[in-house]
Structure formats: structure tokens, C-alpha cells
Amino acid sequence: MPIIDMPVDMLLARISSEGDASKITADDLGEILPKLGCEVEEVADMQEFVCKVCGKIYDRTEAQGPPLHCSNCGADFRTFPEELENLGTSRVLRLDMLAVRPDIFDPGGMARYIRGYLGIQTGLPEYVLSAARIKVQVDPDLSNEDSYRPYIACAVVRNVELDNNTIKMVMNLQEDLHWALGRDRKLASIGVYDLDTLAGDVFHYDAVVPDGLKFVPLGLSPNDPDANLTPREILEQHKTGQEYAHLLKPLKKYPLLRDGEGTVLSMPPIINSESTRVTMKTKQFFIDVTGISQRTVDRALNIVATSLKEIMPRIEVECVMIESPAGEAAVSHAVETDSNRQSSIVNRQSASVSPVVRITPDLTPAEMTLNVRQAAETIGIDINAAQLAELLESMGHGVEEGPHGETLKVLVPAYRNDVMHPIDLIEDAAIAYGYDNLKPELVPTFTVGSPWAIEEHSATARRVLTGLGFHQVMTLVLSSEPAAFGKWRIEPDPRTVKIENPISTEQTICRVSILPGLLETLAINKQYDLPQYLFEVGDCCFVDPDVETGAREERIIAACMIGTHVGYADIRAVTDAFVHEMGVICTVKATDHPSYIPGRAAALFDDQGKQVGVMGEVHPEVLENYGLKHPVSVMELSLEKLLEV
Fold this sequence. Notes:
Layout: E1 3-7, H1 8-16, H2 26-35, E2 39-51, E3 57-60, E4 84-96, H3 107-117, E5 129-138, E6 151-158, H4 164-180, E7 188-194, E8 202-208, H5 231-237, H6 239-244, E9 254-258, E10 264-267, E11 271-272, E12 285-291, H7 294-311, E13 316-324, H8 328-332, H9 339-352, E14 356-360, E15 366-371, H10 372-379, H11 385-394, E16 398-401, E17 407-412, H12 422-433, H13 453-467, E18 471-472, E19 478-479, H14 481-484, E20 509-510, H15 515-524, E21 532-543, E22 551-562, H16 568-581, E23 587-590, E24 596-605, E25 611-618, H17 620-626, E26 632-638, H18 639-643
Parallel strand pairs: 5-8, 5-13, 18-21
Antiparallel strand pairs: 1-4, 2-3, 2-4, 6-12, 6-13, 7-12, 8-9, 9-10, 10-11, 13-14, 15-17, 16-17, 19-20, 21-22, 22-26, 23-24, 24-25, 25-26
Helix pairs in contact: 1-3, 3-7, 4-7, 10-12, 11-12
């Protein structure tokens, strides 16, 4: 979890500004914050330093000492100590925070959270937004794979009054959101600019070639003739560009944000331009968030806009109109063999599609339905709809009671990134109720647990095969169609459960057989002496429309033998001994199977005539697919079918 430095004076001032909270002190915060899930590491006196080059402010402990270089612009304070200024000391709370709550990483958001918890200001906060006067036009090329960063959300903030503390808060909030929401700028990155340095009311978010233009990145002097760099040069030469170059290296075109006269605001997600830098004299902000995740981009802007409003109540937050081409993804990925025809298709579609217009920030709350009884049972308290609504309102939600008091319609603030399911609302209610107030109770009925029958049979099966000289292994449950079927010379099983969003091409399905994993293990252990006897008892997964979940697990046991003289007779003897020790009788019948040598495979049937397994000597082509040079015999049985569990 991240450690956040929270200025004590600023936090107390924002809590006290709404209602009578004058009795709240720093000591009170030490008791309140842990109840809200924020662990107080310490209260510390921090030394404040400011980089004179870019304006970034640092909080440093006495043990840390002054920074050696600027993490924002790369200024070297050891070589040029005059570029670092000492601002004095400030008292901060060092908080161990939950990464899922970036809306409380700053004094404004935290004060809002505490005011609700203390009952000073409950319910859904309302923020007035002014009508849009600036429009941002989005280049359709940003939706192409070779320049992909298509999403942008913007806001204008007017009547800004800055001091060292507010500038530090804005910069720290940016970096904290980059980490907590943006995945280190990959999903989203934030830019804050001095609006008075910009011109025009139509801005442009474009995809540009790496060497297409030049601008002075933040931290370099406009008077330095070598400071005017192309996007490619920024990635190669600038400290921040080098640090985040991996985010743009795969692209052929880079995103760039410019005003109506072509002045560069930034090259997302790398760096802002020096000409738009925020200073103590800044009176108006232009804020943008760009990224590859629309939800993340929107949430980040909502957090920034509302946090600024909490810190500086007099500011005016103004919307921005985002104009994006409709259908650009489909157009950009059109596939046509005739290049002339493709061009005509693109032109025709582009001309017929109107742009999509969004207004940002959008602070419309999300609606969720919460079952009162479910909430009460989950928390473990006796509570009615009105009491539950009161708890949720103290956590900043809007609440409307449903019919008969059985459900609540909850309005979730647009800056809450962590509420995605009713259970998240229940957690909020539990925090508001207070975990310390929950009374432990004994369960009304005591029972003694016992293992499932299939687990007892599995344990017996392991003991039997171990006694027969086999070693147990555990292989991966996830596999792929080439590994599970292609190597075994069989067609894919229609009952295979497929992974919707696999993390790799090697893990796309749930296994339907344990044998591929056993032969993979033999292939890995070719350097060891022969013979080798391995077995595994585990679950395979099959699509089954007759069960509620649509798929079921089945307990399978498989064994393999590899050696110079291993054959069908060896695995048949092992299988007969295993079945006998398990106390069942099976009938063996010859079978033809693509994975086994013809004439050396058999199927096993129970006394009802139902097939429960197969055994045989593996086909040479299968062995070649695994790189095995010695004969292999295998058997695989369904324990559930064999024992009718």
C-alpha cells in the first residue's frame, strides 16, 4: 500500500470549513483515520524543498535530507544547488493507504470523507459545473494500433489562487493517480497547464510522426537552442522521456495535445511543454487526462476536478467538449486487397459518419441496487432500510429507499473508482457502522466437519499408486488446444471450457485430460534415469448445460510409465491392481484411439457398461511431439464414474 503524506493544517482546515468541527485536532485524526481504513504510520515534521526549474515541491524527513535531483524535470541539485530552495517545515500525517481509494489521497478528498463519517456533511456531494467553452478535437489516427491512445477527458478550472501548498497538492495528486489508477501512466496520464498561455477555443489531440515537430519539454530553458526537441529526441534524451519511453516505443505515431494556434501542451503520457507550465501566478488551469482505458480516464479527471474544488472552494470548474470521430476503429481496421478500393471505402465512411461529442467531466453518479437483508446478513447486524441508508449517506452516497423497505437505490459518486458491486457498498456500510461495534457471537448450531467422499477416495487412490511404485506430480490446470489435442492426434473436445481473456497462448482452456501434463513432465525430466513412473489425481473441467454454472469439474486419476521395455502389458497390470485395490470390478475391451498404437489400447467399463477410462501404449507420433525417445504407456480413469461418487 502507498504511503501518503497528508498536511495536517490543510486537512483540519477543510474539515472545519463545513459545519462546527472546531474541536477536531490532530490527535483526533489519529483515532478517526484507522476506522476509515487509513493506517497512521507517524506524525512527522517534514522539510519542504522546491525545484526552481519546474516548481515541483518535495517533502523530506530530516534523515532523508534534501533531494539530489528533480524526479519531474531531472534537474541536478548536486551540480546546481541554487536550483533547489528550502521552504521550511510542515507537519504531516504519514498514512498507509489503500490503493483502491485514490479519491482520498489528497487533503480535499480526505476531508470530504471525514466530514461524512462524522456526520458534518452527509449524502452525495454536489459540484456545480459551468458550460463548456473549449472544444478538443480527437484525431481518428489515435484509434489505430500503431498510434493507440484514443481516450481523452478535459476540464477547465478558473479563479485559481495558488501557494506552495496547493501547487504541491496538485503535483502530488497527479503522481499518486498515475500510480494508483494509471498503472504508471499506461492506462491514463494527467496534464495540468496554465490556460492563460494558450489560445483559441478549439484544441487538437493528434497523432504525429516522431520527427514531425519540435517543442521545449518541461524543465528545459526556452532560451537554450538545444532545448527544442522532437518527440523522438525527448524519448531518447530527456530524463522523463527515457523513463517512460517504453509506453510509446511500439507506436509509429505519438499523441500530442495542441491549442488552437498550434502551441504544444504536452506529449502524453510523457511530459508537458515548458511554455504551459503552472506557476504561482497561474489563475486558470486546463486539465487533460489521456489513456487507453475510457473508465480510468474519466475517473481520474473526476477525482482531480472534485479534489481541486474541495481544496479551493472558490474555483469554477468548467466542462470541455470532446469531439471524437465515430466509427474510426472500424474504418482504421478495414481490410481490402485492392488499395484503391480501400481508400474509397474509408473516404465514403468518413464522410457519412457524424462525430461523437462528449462533455467532460461527467459527474453523474452511478446507480446501484442494494438488498437490505443481504447487507444486514453480510455485516452481521440487525438493521433496517432507513438505518442502512443513513450509514451509506455518511460514506458520501446518495440513497433512495425502494418499495417495502427491501432494497435501496444507491447513487455512487462519480469519483469513486472502487465501487463496482453491491458488496462494495456493504463494505462502506460496515465501515460507517464501525468494525469495533460488531459484537462476536457463537453460531447457534455446532457441527463436525467431514471430508467429501471423493476426497477420501482420492486419498486412497494416491496411497495405492504410491504403493505400486509411482511418484505423484501436480501439473497445470490450464492448457491450450495445441497441447491438449494437437499433440495427441485428436480433435478438440466440444466440452472444453475456454478462457475468455487468456493471459497467454499457452493457457487458453481448462484441461479435459491429465495425460498431456504427465507427458510434459516426462519431457522435462528426460535427463533422469529410466524407468520413470508418475501419476496425478486432479480435476478436469467440462462444459455441462445441465448444471447451473454451465460447467462442472470431474475428479480424474492418470498414470504413465516410461522405460526401455515398457509396454501395454505393464500398464494393464498396474490398472488391474489399482482397480482391485479400489474395490471395484471393470471390464476391459479393445479399442481404437488415435493417441495409442493400434492393437495396444483398451477401454475400461463398469458393471453397468459405462466407460470409465482408457489405457494403452502411446503412439510414436505423440512421443515425437514431446521429444520422448522411449516407449510410454498410460492409463486415465474417472474416479467419480469408477466409484459412482
